[in-house]
């Protein structure tokens, strides 16, 4: 129990407090008020109804703080501009219940200056606005979720990458729906261990997310767990779409492979040209002296046959030398718009009467309105010739050779397909067929230069060539030629 003296001190202390304090009953009757130096002090009389005495109202205030305290049985705070007795121009009301056992016996209401609070609130408001603008307009996608997975922050970039609308996500979706499969759980597991950066962080991690359309796309994710002391309270992730980067990387890789191939071809070409030139003279000598012996001497039949063999093989050697020189030729200068259908027909005309084509059915599907393509016709004929001869060899003189031409307007290219019903090319061999000197033909039958020559010519035309093959079904060569090739050669692919 307090002594009278103690009570007096307390009352004096409350009176000396420069804020209004009143105590009201649960039916709004003023039970006590402190004596501030308010000019309105006289208006507050014990027994009066607070809304009448303080605000001259006939009914309780609509936003009555006391009612809130009665309802919640807890202290409540309400910033406002209308303090009790208008002591402060800008004030804040604070109220708390006084219990008698389980019952609320009375309520304390006090007001205090708002200026500091308001300034703080204003500052918080401004920095909140700045932060939310920052998050909203960030180039990276930003996503934050509570520890149940509920998404709390999802900025514009995240919406753009994922295809979701912000209203469909915040407080509605779980982070688990953003990552396909066990993605979200894996990210959490990595965040919680030390193997992928400091505990609680994950840097530049490549992971997939599922767009609203169901499409799976790769992203690069920087993520962190937000801690409150020791406990995890949220996760925060910054991410960006990796599709463009991966596309560029793949293209770079392809270009690198093509560059390597080009380099390989060009050095082999130079080597071949050198060897070919050096072989030309001795080959000429062999041919010339063999012919002289045949003309100048009476030879037994066996020796004549042997010499004929020497001459025949020398002729083969000089053909190979010619191929080698062709293989190492410089870029053609005779580019003229030509009818590809006509060029193909010309090549076929030369070949189809040869014995090897007698049992080969030739099917043509030429687009009659093919645009003219700028090509070196002689070289392109050489391309068709090599591919068709290979096909005839592969089919061993029996099967179907199909030739088709088409126009690809979206690529501004003309496409030529040459396919056969031969044995096909095994998967492990397919990547090598354009390599110089690669052949599966028995010794003396193939040089392995045919397709590398083809490759080089198509490259010089700025076109593309590739082969598709299924063992047991056949092989298809697909050539694309540009309608507006870049001057001085172009790209190639194998
Ligand atoms: N249509 C095809 N069907 C099956 N294999 C093929 C076909 N075209 C090419 N090949 C394979 O590719 C290899 C290389 O062909 P390429 O034309 O470069 O050389 P080659 O035909 O062996 O010799 P050559 O220099 O006399 O042309 C062939 O040996 C063969 O194994
Ligand atoms: Mg060949």
Main traits of this protein?
five-stranded antiparallel beta sheet; binds magnesium ion; alpha+beta; Beta-Lactamase; disordered C terminus; Helix Hairpins; binds adenosine-5'-triphosphate; 494 residues
Order of helices and strands: HEEHHEEEHEEHHHEEEHHEHEEHEEHEE
Question: Could you tell me which ligands this complex binds, including any ions or cofactors?
Answer: adenosine-5'-triphosphate, magnesium ion
Structural class: alpha+beta
Number of helices: 12
Structure characterization notes:
With 494 residues, this protein is an alpha+beta fold. The protein folds into four domains: 114 residues, Beta-Lactamase, CATH 3.30.450.20; 104 residues, PAS domain (Beta-Lactamase, 2-Layer Sandwich); 86 residues, Signal transduction histidine kinase, dimerisation/phosphotransfer (DHp) domain (Helix Hairpins), CATH 1.10.287.130; 161 residues, Heat Shock Protein 90 (2-Layer Sandwich), CATH 3.30.565.10. 39% of the residues lie in helices and 26% in strands. It has twelve helices and 17 strands. 24% of the residues are buried. The C terminus is likely disordered. Bound molecules: adenosine-5'-triphosphate and magnesium ion.
Outline the secondary-structure elements.
Elements lengths: L3 H13 L4 E5 L4 E4 L16 H6 L9 H8 L3 E5 L10 E10 L2 E11 L1 H23 L3 E6 L4 E4 L1 H7 L3 H4 L13 H10 L8 E10 L5 E13 L2 E11 L1 H54 L4 H27 L8 E3 L1 H12 L7 E7 L7 E3 L1 H18 L3 E11 L4 E8 L29 H11 L3 E7 L3 E9 L12
Parallel strand pairs: 12-14
Antiparallel strand pairs: 1-2, 1-5, 3-4, 4-5, 6-7, 6-10, 8-9, 9-10, 11-13, 14-15, 15-17, 16-17
Helix pairs in contact: 8-9, 10-11, 11-12
Bound molecules: adenosine-5'-triphosphate and magnesium ion.
């Amino acid at each position: 129990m307090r002594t009278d003296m103690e009570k007096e001190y307390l009352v004096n202390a409350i009176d000396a407090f420069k804020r209004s304090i009143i105590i009201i009953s649960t039916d709004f009757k003023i039970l006590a008020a402190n004596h501030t130096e308010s000019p309105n002090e006289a208006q507050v009389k014990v027994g009066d109804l607070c809304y009448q005495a303080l605000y001259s109202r006939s009914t309780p205030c609509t936003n009555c703080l006391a009612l809130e305290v009665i309802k919640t049985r807890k202290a409540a705070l309400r910033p406002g501009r209308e303090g009790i007795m208008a002591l402060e121009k800008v004030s804040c009301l604070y109220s708390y219940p006084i219990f008698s056992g389980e019952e609320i016996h009375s309520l304390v209401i006090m007001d205090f200056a708002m200026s500091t609070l308001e300034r703080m609130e204003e500052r918080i408001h401004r920095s909140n606005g700045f932060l939310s603008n920052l998050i909203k307009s960030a180039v990276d996608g930003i996503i934050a979720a509570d520890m149940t997975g509920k998404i709390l922050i999802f900025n514009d970039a995240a919406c753009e990458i994922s295809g979701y609308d912000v209203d469909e996500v915040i407080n509605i979706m779980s982070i688990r729906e953003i990552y396909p499969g066990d993605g979200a759980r894996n990210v959490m597991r990595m965040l919680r261990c030390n193997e992928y950066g400091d505990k609680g962080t994950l840097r530049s991690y490549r992971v997939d997310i599922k767009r609203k359309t169901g499409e799976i796309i790769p992203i690069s994710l920087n993520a962190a767990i937000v801690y409150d002391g020791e406990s995890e309270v949220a996760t925060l992730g910054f991410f960006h779409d990796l599709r463009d980067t991966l596309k560029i990387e793949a293209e770079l890789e392809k270009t690198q492979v093509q560059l390597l191939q080009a380099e390989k071809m060009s050095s082999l070409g130079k080597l071949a040209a050198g060897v070919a030139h050096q072989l030309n003279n001795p080959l000429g000598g062999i041919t010339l002296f063999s012919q002289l012996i045949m003309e100048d001497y009476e030879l037994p039949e066996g020796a004549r046959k042997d010499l004929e063999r020497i001459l025949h093989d020398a002729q083969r050697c000089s053909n190979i030398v010619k191929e080698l020189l062709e293989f190492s030729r410089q870029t053609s200068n005779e580019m003229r718009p030509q009818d590809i259908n006509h060029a193909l027909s010309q090549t076929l005309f030369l070949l189809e009467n040869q014995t090897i084509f007698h049992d080969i059915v030739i099917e043509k599907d030429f687009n009659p309105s093919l645009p003219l393509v700028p090509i070196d016709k002689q070289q392109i004929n050489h391309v068709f010739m090599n591919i068709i001869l290979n096909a005839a060899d592969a089919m061993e003189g029996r099967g179907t050779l199909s030739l088709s031409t088409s126009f690809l307007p979206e690529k501004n290219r003309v496409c030529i397909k040459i396919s056969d019903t031969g044995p096909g090319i095994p998967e492990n061999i397919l990547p090598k067929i354009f390599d110089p000197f690669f052949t599966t033909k028995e010794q003396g039958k193939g040089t392995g230069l045919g397709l590398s020559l083809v490759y080089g010519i198509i490259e010089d035309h700025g076109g593309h060539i590739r082969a598709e093959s299924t063992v047991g079904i056949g092989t298809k060569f697909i050539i694309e030629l540009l309608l507006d090739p870049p001057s001085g050669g172009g790209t190639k692919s194998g």
